[in-house]
TrEMBL record:
GO CC terms: nucleus
Coiled coil segments of this chain: 92-168
Name of the protein in question: Uncharacterized protein
Domain K-box stretches: 85-175
Coiled coil in keyword set: yes
Source species, domain of life: Eukaryota
InterPro entries in UniProt: MADS-box/MEF2_TF (IPR050142), MEF2-like_N (IPR033896), TF_Kbox (IPR002487), TF_MADSbox (IPR002100), TF_MADSbox_sf (IPR036879)
Length: 218
């Protein structure tokens, strides 16, 4: 029958917790002793219980082990303080060299300070210029192709819109739309109204005036 796996969490029952502590303390001390004997290791183990009681196990002398531990910790602290400074100095030197190289390269790209370059430097500058020129040409061609594509799309859209307008105009001229028919009827009605209400013409008025003037002088 397989052993049931115990879930690792705090044991709430004080008695059960003390029993488990005693059993596991003896087990870990046994493991520490085995490690010391099998691997010839210097082992020191310190345990405080919940009541504050001290339990310890060491392969030689606990005092010697603690002294050795303290000395080792001091050496580690010294290394921790000096190591970042060395790293910073190394990084600073690398950055300064990189900055000098980039500055020299930039001056070369501007056509300045060729005298300070040897043959290898001039060849490197030539390769850099060729690579840069190639990138510029590729980017230029890409932009031109993008603009041509956009213009082609715009041309197609305008052509479709023009064809649509032509179709609408053809439909309007082929058969009168209801709007144009109503407009013709309205214009004809207005003409009829104007002809009915216009009254005597200008010639009739002038005849009456002449007649009246003739009667005034016998």
């Amino acid at each position: 029958m397989a052993r049931q796996k115990i879930k690792i969490k705090k044991i709430d029952n004080a008695t059960a917790r003390q029993v488990t502590f005693s059993k596991r303390r003896r087990g870990i001390f046994k493991k520490a002793e085995e490690l010391s004997v099998l691997c010839d290791a210097e082992v020191g183990l310190i345990i405080f219980s919940t009541t504050g009681k001290l339990y310890e196990h060491c392969s030689s002398s606990m005092k010697d082990i603690i002294t050795r531990y303290n000395q080792h910790s001091k050496q580690i602290n010294k290394l921790d303080k000096t190591l970042p400074l060395q790293v910073v100095k190394s990084m600073s030197a690398e950055l300064q060299k990189e900055f000098a190289d980039k500055t020299q390269q930039l001056r070369g790209l501007k056509g300045e300070d060729f005298e300070g370059l040897n043959l290898d430097g001039l060849q490197q500058l030539e390769r850099t210029l060729e690579t840069g020129l190639k990138s510029v040409i590729e980017m230029k061609e890409k932009r031109i192709m993008n603009e041509i594509g956009a213009l082609q799309i715009k041309s197609i859209e305008l052509q479709e819109e023009n064809n649509h307008l032509k179709q609408k105009m053809a439909m309007l001229f082929k058969g009168k739309s209801p709007l144009l028919g109503n407009l013709d009827v309205s214009c004809e009605s207005m003409n009829n109204v104007c002809s009915c209400n216009s009254g005597p013409s200008l010639e009739d008025d002038s005849s009456d005036i002449s007649l009246k003037l003739g009667l005034a002088f016998p």
